[in-house]
């Protein structure tokens, strides 16, 4: 996985942000670029399309794409302003009415970067931009936390995530193990509580006790029938500990077994998610062409 992340950082992101120093992207264009990047990460880890995007960025160690594009633009302003040669570009942007400089200042204000900051060294400015962009993303996460339960689940169990920094397990575990841990942390395991609109009720299919909800925490550590098969040796909070990758490797294998049992249950019982029910004994949805002449039987004129 380490090589894959390096490839994305060295090749994919530069390609997707190419020309961002000069281009004036609209909000819609920025959203489309972000969506392409989100889909790339989901396909890479084989995650469902409904995986929350912000939680995905936290787990993979990336900031929103707008941060990378804005950073390139601000760094370009730093290069031009500090160029000792009096170039045509420098003369042009020094005019207060220059549209490029006005748009660049708006992006600088978003991350609390001032014109005085552009006089700092390249490394000093870059460090400040990254630090302030991390704060910007943190505020965005806190706003989503109030309305998105899956983002709240991740942040509550991982209260001080290192935004913009990839968790250690994402570098050292296999791709399938990374997928399993990411599925659990983003609350995308196929249990009823994670897909409430897909099931007629929320009762645990293994306990079958009224009032016992089928949640990730319950299935992995509390459900007697399930834990009898999977024999977990970890508590739920250990899944969010980034420090011990060897432990996470063991946990990933246990969770994998749990997911396999759940998927078998989904396929064998009538209580399957609505969006996975196979259509059978239904009329053909194609338009009825019985009133049209059968051209194959027509004689040539």
Q: Keyphrases for this structure?
A:
54% helix, mainly alpha, 301 residues
Descriptive account of the structure:
- The protein has 301 residues and is an all-alpha fold.
- It has two domains: 2-157, no CATH class; 189-271, no CATH class.
- The protein has 13 helices and no strands.
- Helix 4 runs antiparallel to helix 7 and helix 11 packs across helix 12 (224-230).
- Mean pLDDT is 86; it is low at 274-301.
Topology:
Blueprint lengths: L1 H15 L10 H19 L7 H8 L4 H17 L6 H6 L5 H12 L11 H24 L3 H9 L11 H4 L2 H11 L30 H7 L1 H7 L14 H24 L33
Please tally the helical runs, counting DSSP H or I stretches of 4 or more residues. Answer: 13
> Number of DSSP strands?
0
Strand content: under 5%
CA radius of gyration: 26 Å
What separation lies between the terminal Cα atoms?
67 Å
Largest sheet report: none
Class computed from helices, strands and strand pairing: mainly alpha
Mean pLDDT level: 86
The domain tally reads: 2
In short:
With 301 residues, the chain is mainly alpha-helical. The chain contains 13 helices and no strands.
